[in-house]
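Re-run with default settings, no changes from the original entry. Doing this only to confirm the output is reproducible before filing.
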Amino acid sequence: MILSMTGFASISRDFPGGLLSLEVRAVNHRYLDVQMRLPEELRIIEPQLREMVASRVSRGKLECRVGLNQLEADNPTLELNADFLASLLQVAAQVEQQAPQAKGLSVGELLRWPGILKTNTLAPEVLQQLCLQSLTTALEDFNASRAREGEKLKQILHDRVTAMEGIISTIKPKLPLILDAYMSKLSSRLQDALGNVEDDRIKQEFALFAQKIDVDEELSRLTTHLSEVKRILKAGGQTGKRLDFLMQELNREANTLGSKSVSTETTQASVELKVLIEQMREQIQNIE
C-alpha cells in the first residue's frame, strides 16, 4: 500500500461535563515532525500520544490538536463526601487522644484533603484514557485517508511510467537509422572539406565518435529504472525516499540522452522524458 503524507481526521467524544475534540492533520516533510496542541489537563500523556503517532506514521509534518469544551449545562459542582469526612474526623480524634499537643485540622485543611469533595467532572485518568482511545480512532481514519490519496498518487505515477516507456519504445528502434544518417552526413561534409576520408585513422575516429553518440545504453538504463519504479509501487510500504532516488537516476539518464543527441527526435524524446520525470518527482514528494 502506498501512503500519502497528506491527510486529515477529526473525532469528537462526549464525556460527563464536556466534549473532547481531536484533530490530526499532516503535510509532506522530509522526516517525521509531530506537534502536539494539548490542554493542560492532558499534557501528562503527551509522551504516550507521541508514541502512538510514531508507531503509525513514519514521515510528514503532523499536528495533533486536542480541545476540551465544558458544557454550560453541566458546570462542575462540589459535594461534601460526608462518609469520608466522618472517618477522617474519627481518625483525627484518635490522634488527639494519643497526642494532645497535636494541632487539630482546620476547615481549610479538611476541604483540601484528597477525596473530601466530590465533583461531577470526569476523573483525570478517565479523561486521559478517553483521549488515548480517541487518538487511536483518529489515526485509523487518518491512515485510511492517506491510503486513498496514496492510491491516486500511485495511478498518476503508473501513467507517467507508461508514457515514458512509450517514448523509449518509439525512439529505440530508430537509433540505428538515426546514427547511420548522421554519420553519412558527417562523412559527406568531410569529403567536401578534405576530398578523401578513406584514411584508416579517420575511420577509427568515426568508430569512436559513433560509440560516444550511441544512446542505446542510456535507454536500457531508463527501462531498468522504470521497471524498478513499477516494482516499488507494487510492493508498497515506505517508498518515498527510494522513488525519489530513482527520479534522480532517471533524470541523469535523460540528460545524457539529450547531451548525446544528434537528431531532433532524440532531443525531443529527452525533453519529454524530463518533463514526465519532473511531474513524477512532484508527486513523490507527497509519498511516505
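Residues 147-284 form a domain with the Butyryl-CoA Dehydrogenase, subunit A; domain 3 fold (CATH 1.20.140). The mean pLDDT is 84.
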